[in-house]
Amino acid sequence: MAQRKAAIAKERERLVVPADPEAIAKLAPRYVNPSLGELQFIRKENEAWLDVGEWKTAVASRKNDDGTISIVTIDPTLAGFEFVVADEPAARRLILRDAQARVRLKEAAPEDGGGEPLIRRLGGSVPACDRRCHHLTAATEP
């Protein structure tokens, strides 16, 4: 248990909260995956939110050891979903990393508009959380 708490504390130190404005500015407003649906990034003043339809969460950013940038959800019960920025010359992309899979999302084109929200994969139906959490919670523990 002590090792797990130490690992969580170390991970918290790597997060930038609120998310780095430069990293957020490079994100597309919407991303889609044909099987999973759509997500949006909402920018308000110095904060950024990930909105998947039925719920939204504040996000932090993190520079990874390999030089990539991750956008990480931080609100309680939704903490720990990691989206790695994986832009290519012709398109902005994200990779959703979880313990079982890597899922690629691409920037939504105007013709992709209004798709099904990305809720099935990211925890089902969860109410929106309007409170800010500046820490990862026990929800990030395996």
Describe this structure in words.
There is one protein chain. The chain is an alpha+beta fold and 142 residues long. The protein has one domain. It has two helices and eight strands, in the order ααββββββββ. The protein has helices spanning 2-14, 21-25, and strands at residues 30-33, 37-44, 47-51, 56-63, 69-73, 82-85, 93-97, 102-107. An eight-stranded antiparallel β-barrel has the order 1-2-3-4-5-6-7-8. β3 and β4 (56-63) form a beta hairpin. The protein is globular. It starts with a helix and ends in a 35-residue tail after the last strand. Mean pLDDT is 77; it is low at 116-142.
Helices, by number, come to 2
General form: globular
What's the average pLDDT? 77
Elements, N to C (H/E)? HHEEEEEEEE
| Unreliable segments of 5+ consecutive residues | 116-142
Number of domains: 1
Index terms:
142 residues, alpha+beta, eight-stranded antiparallel β-barrel, globular
Write the layout of secondary structure elements.
Elements: H1 2-14, H2 21-25, E1 30-33, E2 37-44, E3 47-51, E4 56-63, E5 69-73, E6 82-85, E7 93-97, E8 102-107
Antiparallel strand pairs: 1-2, 1-8, 2-3, 3-4, 4-5, 5-6, 6-7, 7-8
Short recap of the structure:
The protein has 142 residues and is α+β, with helices and mostly antiparallel strands. Helix content is 13%, strand content 32%. The protein has one domain.
